[in-house]
Amino acid sequence: MKVLGIMGSPRRQSNTEILLDAALAGAKERGAEAEKVAVSELKISPCREIYACLKDGQCAIKDDMQRLYEKLLEADHIVFASPIFFYGITSQAKAMVDRCQALWVRRYVLGIGKGDNRIRRGAFISVGATQGKRLFDGAVLTVKYFFDAIGVKYAGDVLIRGIDGKAQIKEHPTALQDAFHLGQQLVHPDTKR
Ligand SMILES: Cc1cc2nc3c(=O)[nH]c(=O)nc-3n(C[C@H](O)[C@H](O)[C@H](O)COP(=O)(O)O)c2cc1C
Fold first, then answer.
1. In contact, 156 and 162? CB cutoff 8 Å
2. Is residue 10 domain-resident?
3. What are phi and psi of 26, to 5 degrees?
4. Does the CB atom of residue 84 touch ligand 1 within 6 A?
5. What's 60's domain CATH number?
6. Is residue 192 domain-resident?
7. Is 193 contained in some domain?
8. Largest CB tally within 10 Å, which of 34, 49, 66, 114?
9. Host H or E run for residue 121
10. Phi and psi at residue 21, in whole multiples of 5°?
């Protein structure tokens, strides 16, 4: 079983990456193979909305996204992680999500991959500096629709407010255990704490 972690923060060893690593450690503890991809280190151009993908589901832009499409399709489960930037996910992560319009076309327009009966689950991890009640609303909607576009069920999240400094998440009393448990549950949904 393969779990793909998508790291959407532009900084490394960020709050997001620390939480994602904990989630992937949880998935591995439950027997999964885990791989992490940092989108800021890939060349992923924004979607140009030319809809070349309507022909055969292939995106016309030849950049690092081509390799990531394969990983996204191959993964059994996905952990998507991004900090909140202006009430949404980072632009690096959003570029990747928008490029998945080609996978949406494959699935919902061309009917490619219909025979895939796997139940694929996805989890979302996010952090933001402020405390607002609706801090994660926009990002959660984006991620839910992203998961839906690629045939992944939104299975849970860890959303942490009040975190701003680099690696400040390490001081949080529960976040790392919560993320570890999220990763375990992604692989085995009945995992108790
Ligand atoms: C461009 C930018 C926009 C941000 N927008 C928000 C925001 O809308 N709300 C918020 O609570 N925090 C916002 N933040 C703060 C980050 O979410 C916060 O510092 C977070 O801990 C960064 O996570 P990271 O270490 O994983 O990159 C913003 C930070 C940056 C750099």
1. no
2. yes
3. -65, -40
4. yes
5. 3.40.50.360
6. no
7. no
8. 34
9. strand 121-127
10. -60, -40
Alpha carbons within 13 angstroms on the beta-carbon side of residue 79 total 40
Structure tokens at 56: 């055969």
Extract the tokens encoding 130.
Answer: 């402020």
Query: Residue 156 and residue 144: Cα distance in Å, rounded?
Result: 10
Instruction: Determine the distance separating the centroid of ligand 1 and the alpha carbon of 150, expressed in angstroms.
Output: 27
pTM: 0.98
Mean pLDDT by 10 residues, the chain (193 residues): 98 97 98 98 98 98 98 98 98 98 97 92 98 97 98 98 97 98 96 87
**Minimum-distance ligand 1 atom for the alpha carbon of 161:** 11
Cα of 133 vs centre of ligand 1, distance in Å, is 15
Which residues touch 188 (CB under 8 Å, ≥6 apart)?
A: 30
β-bridge mates for residue 169, sequence order: none
Total count of domains within the chain: 1
Of 123, 112, 126, 52, which Cα lies nearest the Cα of 82? 126
Is the CB of residue 157 less than 8 Å from the CB of residue 182? yes
Rounded distance between C-alpha atoms, residue 73 and residue 53, angstroms = 16
